[in-house]
Design a protein that fits this description.
heterodimer, A: about 325 residues, alpha/beta, Rossmann fold, Alpha-Beta Plaits, 2 domains, 6-stranded mixed sheet, 11 helices, 14 strands, B: about 270 residues, mainly alpha, 13 helices, about 75% helix
């Protein structure tokens, strides 16, 4: 059983006041997240990440498609007992203290008395707000609210944790703490589904990622699958060269001088690097290294976002969906 | 809409609304202002020889009702819309609760706040009346239709609270699908129309057109009839307030609140939080 499963999930919003038109925020998202995975849901702003999370939390209803969490339908109360959710830029009640907010939320899960008090205290300590527990939330900074948000996400020891832009509003120390927290949750065997547009977070945390752009799933897989599949070329370093290797040589894309007699040769992916080394060092010189140049996550991301950018989301809506409501 | 409503969940949501609203400074300002008006009734009563105690009772109960309405409407319209606007509802609805439970919890939370406020304001009025009663020579007090500290004030205050429950339900109903400003306007409108329920009922006696009479009769049944909750006149003039009348009025209020909250839950359960 997958921890999270969506099938052809789509969402249209109506935009425009006088003549509302359906705007496709999410277009046929099909993916599954396995238990214990840290799954990065990546995309630029407006890609449909938050819409997907809102659909999974039933804050909005799908125009079409289905989804389940822990094998149960969305909105199922038993399932909700086993998940945690951190919304993007969370906001809580001004006049409650951090401790009161967590006590309230813990109560909604049925925790009482000593157990509840211990749970609340432990979580506030874990997110670094132990000293501010009795301060009203209206006096909290954005970063502190984000920490309270993380604490409330974990109040019920959830099996599946949904984090919408968890690094948002955090300083470098806060981001490091959140990264450590996600890795700890992974080590505890929990499933973490987090959305982000910060690629370095995904690279350091995720076992699998999905890239969405313009409401569509562009690719999904493990980082190594997605990135090593794309060999960009070879970087050949040569030294003691009598002269610079010619850029016009077959298979060479460019040459960079590093130091006297030392050059970095950028070779095309289709070229044979060993043959190229033999040819380039025929008049002298020595091979230092041959390195495969792979796609970075950023390259992949940019390419896929560019690929999606030509599409018009109004035009994608089929006539049947355009005639229907927002649900 | 979930058919099952968990009482502990509703109680926790209500307790949170109560906790938040009693810390809101606006609430204290309103209650303080009401207390001032109640105290001022003591001065105003001096303008009308022989009617002093009636004026204090009338003005005092009017102040409790008016400021109670302010609290019910202004906090009521924000209970749901503020959660949606500030997006605090996102984390909340991910917890094991239904949207219906959230609405019912909000309703009972504000009703608890109103109960405390109406009680505080009524106690203030009773104190003012007791002080006035104690300062009045007994021969003058004999001319009053009812004693200054008439225990039936509890009935009058209870019916004000029942009316406020209906007003709160109206405010919550509108706030589930409109902006706070529109919800306030609609709620004010309905509360004002609600004071003229009897006129709608008797409309057919003054118009000849049958369709108009039917529409008036339909509106009479559809719109809230808030006039029966006002027993100030009976209280001030020491006229009887039958227990059956109180029971019937409160029963009507409970039915109206149930219908409004059910409709609100139905609309709210389908809403997208964009």
């Amino acid at each position: 059983m997958s921890a999270i499963e969506t099938h052809a999930l789509a969402k249209d919003y109506k935009v425009g006041f006088w003549r509302p038109r359906p705007y496709r925020a999410l277009d046929g998202l099909t993916l599954s997240v396995e238990p214990g995975e840290v799954f990065g849901f990546l995309g630029p702003n407006g890609a449909g990440k938050t819409t997907t999370l809102k659909l999974l939390m039933q804050l909005v209803y799908p125009t079409s498609g289905t989804a389940s969490i822990l094998g149960r339908p969305l909105g199922d109360l038993e399932m909700k007992r086993r998940i945690g959710f951190l919304p993007e830029n969370p906001y809580f009640y001004d006049y409650l203290t951090a401790e009161e907010l967590l006590t309230y939320f813990a109560g909604l899960f049925g925790y009482k008395g000593e157990d509840r008090a211990k749970r609340v205290g432990r979580l506030l300590d874990e997110v670094g707000l132990g000293a501010e527990r009795r301060l009203q939330l209206r006096k909290f900074s954005k970063g502190m609210i984000q920490r309270v948000g993380l604490a409330q996400t974990l109040i019920n020891d959830p099996e599946v944790i949904f984090l919408d832009e968890p690094m948002s509003g955090l300083d470098p120390l806060g981001r490091r703490d959140v990264r450590a927290l996600i890795l700890r949750l992974r080590d505890e065997g929990r499933t973490v589904f987090f959305s982000s547009h910060i690629l370095s977070d995904a690279e350091s945390l995720c076992s699998r990622i999905a890239i969405v752009a313009k409401g569509r799933l562009m690719s999904t897989g493990t980082l190594s699958d997605l990135i090593t599949a794309q060999l960009k070329g070879w970087e050949i370093t040569l030294e003691n060269m009598p002269q610079a290797p010619p850029e016009s040589h077959a298979g060479v894309r460019g040459v960079t001088a590093i130091a006297a007699g030392r050059y970095a040769v950028d070779a095309l992916p289709a070229s044979d690097p060993l043959r190229l080394v033999r040819e380039l060092t025929a008049n002298g010189g020595r091979l230092v290294s041959i390195v495969q140049v792979h796609d970075t996550l950023e390259d992949l991301f940019v390419r896929q976002v560019d690929q999606a950018s030509g599409t018009d989301r109004f035009a994608q809506v089929p006539p049947a969906a355009a005639a229907g409501g927002t649900r | 809409m979930s058919a099952m409503v968990s009482v502990p969940t509703v109680a926790r949501i209500a307790a949170n609304v109560f906790k938040e609203s009693v810390r809101d400074k606006v609430l204290y300002s309103i209650v303080l202002f009401a207390m001032l008006v109640i105290a001022a009734s003591l001065l105003l009563s001096q303008l009308t020889a022989g009617q002093e105690v009636k004026i204090i009772k009338d003005l005092g109960l009017s102040a409790i009702s008016l400021f109670g309405h302010f609290i019910a409407i202004f906090i009521g319209i924000g209970l749901v819309s503020k959660e949606v606007e500030r997006r605090s509802i996102y984390a909340l609805l991910a917890k094991p609760m239904s949207r219906t439970e959230l609405l019912i919890g909000k309703f009972f939370g504000l009703l608890s706040t109103l109960t405390v406020n109406v009680t505080v304001m009524t106690v203030a009025l009773v104190v003012v009346l007791a002080v006035y009663g104690a300062l009045t020579p007994p021969d003058l007090a004999k001319a009053w239709e009812a004693p200054a500290t008439d225990p039936r004030i509890v009935v009058a205050a209870f019916l004000i609270l029942a009316e406020l429950a209906v007003v709160t339900a109206i405010a919550i109903f509108f706030s589930t699908f409109t902006s706070p400003v529109l919800a306030a306007a609609f709620t004010f409108g309905l509360v004002i129309v609600g004071q003229f329920g009897a006129d709608l009922k008797n409309f057919e006696q003054v118009v000849e057109s049958a369709p108009v009479a039917w529409i008036a009769r339909g509106l009479y049944y559809l719109l809230p009839n808030l006039a029966p909750f006002d027993v100030k006149s009976q209280f001030v003039h020491a006229q009887p307030i039958a227990p059956s009348y109180v029971a019937l009025t409160v029963g009507y209020g409970a039915l109206y609140v149930s219908a409004l909250l059910s409709l609100a839950a139905l609309l709210f359960s389908r809403r997208d939080f964009k």
